[in-house]
């Protein structure tokens, strides 16, 4: 029930913001986020995809690791473990982001036609990708919690309908 107290207002705020966002859209199909003649979305899309890949990889690895810990009957619900997991995930995300950027020769400043040393460009791109994995995780968490809240509301409505149906049968 606590989740619904936080998730429902968040969803309501999102729904309230949608008309404002739609009205703010320009009917002109020209991209507004252009740097040096390049649409920024063309640069951010592969970086976001890489961040999503890193986030999913880390979640898969943590899932395997936590399954092993549960089999060994080790408590993973402690605040210390959760904090340690967050820090390790952030560090691994940055490291994997850097590896991907250097291995794939990804250069976001180069894609924007901005001059930068190639190594520095790849380093910055790797940091953006790695740090983006945490943001991606948080966004996925919002959707997951929203789904859980809707499922809880559905169960609540089903129980309420069953009780009302039983009440009608008893009195009728």
Summarize the structure in words.
- The chain starts with a helix and ends with a helix.
- The protein has 5 helices and 2 strands.
- Strand 1 and strand 2 (38-39) form a beta hairpin.
- A two-stranded antiparallel ribbon has the order 1-2.
- Residues 20-27 have low confidence and may be disordered.
- Helix 1 crosses helix 5 (118-171) and helix 2 (40-71) crosses helix 3 (79-103).
- The protein has 172 residues and is mostly helical.
- It has one domain.
Q: State the share of residues found in helices, binned by percent.
A: over 70%
**Total DSSP E strands:** 2
The helix-and-strand class reads mainly alpha
The value of Rg in angstroms is 23 Å
Number of helices: 5
Assembly context of the chains: single chain
Q: Average pLDDT value?
A: 80
Main sheet?
2 strands, antiparallel
Overall, the morphology is elongated
- Spatial gap, N to C terminus: 33 Å
Strand order of the largest sheet: 1-2
Report the β-strand fraction as a percent range.
under 5%
Domains, number: 1
**How do the helices and strands follow one another from N- to C-terminus?**
HEEHHHH
Low-confidence stretches: 20-27
């Amino acid at each position: 029930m606590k989740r619904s107290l936080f998730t429902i207002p968040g969803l309501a705020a999102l729904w309230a913001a949608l008309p404002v966002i739609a009205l703010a859209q320009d009917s002109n199909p020209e991209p507004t986020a252009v740097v040096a003649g390049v649409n920024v979305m063309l640069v951010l899309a592969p970086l976001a995809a890489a961040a999503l890949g890193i986030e999913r990889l880390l979640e898969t690895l943590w899932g395997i690791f936590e399954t092993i810990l549960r089999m060994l009957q080790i408590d993973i619900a402690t605040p210390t473990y959760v904090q340690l997991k967050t820090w390790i995930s952030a560090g691994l995300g940055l490291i994997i982001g850097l590896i991907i950027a250097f291995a794939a020769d990804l250069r976001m400043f180069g894609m924007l036609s901005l001059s930068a040393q190639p190594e520095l460009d790849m380093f910055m791109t790797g940091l953006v990708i790695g740090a983006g994995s945490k943001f991606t995780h948080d966004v996925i968490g919002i959707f997951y919690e929203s789904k859980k809240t809707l499922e809880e509301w559905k169960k609540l409505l089903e129980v309420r309908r069953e009780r009302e149906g039983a009440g009608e049968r008893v009195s009728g």
